[in-house]
């Protein structure tokens, strides 16, 4: 069977162009409808949903304000609450200064060194001591005992240790007489203390004397400068 195409090529191109235009218009209309729907949803959320939430929050604020207004001496109550909050914060950071006496009792050699004055500075975290000893060796024993002392405490269920004294400075060493007229060595000693020892959040702390593993008389009685690296130091 023989088929004859009676539609000219120009007519066919026109029909294809019309179909393409119809498709583009349909897609554009569909996209426009979707975009308008999205804008409508956003407007509904902004003006209805969010507006309703703000209305409810405003009512809650007004109700709470009315309740607070009914409280007698509201300003005093608020001030008291702030003060209680500050007390809790201070309790968490305060120091137990009285532990200094236990510290001195632990590190000062008995019957050898006497402490005449002790001053503690929370700003510089230092302790300044003025004292006297029977001999210079006793002063060295005191200094080296302090160098080897560590603070032992428990934190989060684990035992921890800190060096009790750092940056120890021994100065103003001179000879003098005590109240009984006996010849003594007078000195000044200062050091930076471990905050963990005085911290209130550490209810149980102890001082452990280590002397860095050496407690012999020859080590304690001789100035540290005598020892060289690799020796008993």
Question: Can you put this structure into words, describing what you see?
Answer:
This protein is an alpha+beta fold. It has a domain at 99-222: 2-Layer Sandwich (Gyrase A, domain 2). The protein contains six helices and seven strands. The protein has helices at residues 9-69, 74-93, 99-107, 136-147, 195-198, 217-221; strands at residues 113-121, 126-133, 149-155, 158-163, 165-177, 183-193, 205-209. The strands form two sheets. It has a four-stranded antiparallel beta sheet. A three-stranded antiparallel beta sheet has the order 4-3-7. A hairpin with a 2-residue loop joins strand 3 (149-155) and strand 4 (158-163). The chain is elongated.
Give the topology:
Layout lengths: L8 H61 L4 H20 L5 H9 L5 E9 L4 E8 L2 H12 L1 E7 L2 E6 L1 E13 L5 E11 L1 H4 L6 E5 L7 H5 L12
Antiparallel strand pairs: 1-2, 2-6, 3-4, 3-7, 5-6
List its salient traits.
four-stranded antiparallel sheet, 233 residues, disordered C terminus, 48% helix
Largest sheet: 4 strands, antiparallel
In CATH, the homologous superfamily of the domain at 99-222 goes by the name General secretion pathway protein M, EpsM
In CATH terms, what is the fold-level topology of the domain at 99-222?
A: Gyrase A, domain 2
Q: What's the CATH architecture name of the domain at 99-222?
A: 2-Layer Sandwich
Number of helices: 6
Strand portion: 25-35%
> Would you report the number of β strands?
7
Order of helices and strands: HHHEEHEEEEHEH
Q: What class, by secondary structure content?
A: alpha+beta
Distance between the termini: 118 Å
Estimate percent helicity.
40-55%
Spatial order of the strands forming the largest sheet: 1-2-6-5
Q: Categorize the overall geometry.
A: elongated
Radius of gyration, whole Å: 42 Å
Q: Catalogue the unreliable spans.
A: 212-233
Summed over residues and divided by their number, the pLDDT gives a mean of 76
CATH class of the domain at 99-222: Alpha Beta
């Amino acid at each position: 069977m023989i088929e004859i195409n009676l539609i000219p090529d120009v007519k066919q191109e026109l029909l294809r162009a019309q179909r393409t235009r119809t498709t583009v218009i349909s897609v554009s209309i569909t996209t426009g409808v979707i975009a308008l729907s999205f804008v409508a949803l956003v407007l509904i959320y902004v003006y209805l949903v969010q507006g309703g939430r703000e209305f409810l929050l405003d009512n809650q604020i007004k109700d709470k304000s009315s309740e607070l207004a009914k409280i007698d001496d509201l300003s005093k109550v608020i001030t008291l609450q702030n003060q209680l909050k500050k007390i809790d914060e201070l309790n968490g950071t305060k120091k137990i200064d009285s532990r200094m006496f236990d510290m001195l009792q632990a590190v000062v050699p008995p019957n050898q060194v006497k402490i005449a004055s002790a001053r503690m500075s929370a700003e510089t975290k230092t302790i300044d001591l003025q004292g006297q000893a029977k001999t210079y060796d006793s002063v060295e024993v005191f200094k080296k005992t302090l160098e080897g002392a560590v603070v032992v405490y428990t934190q989060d269920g684990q035992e921890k240790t800190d060096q009790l004294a750092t940056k120890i400075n021994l100065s103003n060493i001179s000879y003098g007489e005590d109240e009984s007229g006996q010849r003594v060595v007078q000195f000044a000693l200062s050091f930076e203390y471990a905050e963990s020892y005085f911290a209130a959040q550490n209810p149980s702390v102890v001082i452990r004397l280590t002397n860095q593993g050496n407690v012999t008389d020859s080590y304690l009685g001789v100035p540290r400068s005598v020892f060289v690296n690799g020796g008993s130091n």
